[in-house]
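Morning run. Coffee first, then this:
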Amino acid sequence: MAETSKAAPTTVHPNGATSTWSNSNIKLHQGFFDRANRASFPLHLKGRKRDVLFYKGMVFLSMVGLAISFGGLYKMANGTISKKGTT
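And here it is:
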């Protein structure tokens, strides 16, 4: 069987399974995420302080999302959202 493309080299794992996801791909993506994290945060915040800020922001956003979804469920349960199209 001839190789058609060299884009993703096939790696053979010790148990014999083959994978097209190579270590170089993982390293490339890791570098991309590092750059994205550095670019999206204030540059004077380094290391742990920035991580804590990031997690606080994530927790805050998830709480807002939960509040919105539970508010919608509460309104539906009480029938304050008019069910258009249902008979």
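Residues 16-78 form one domain. Good start to the day.
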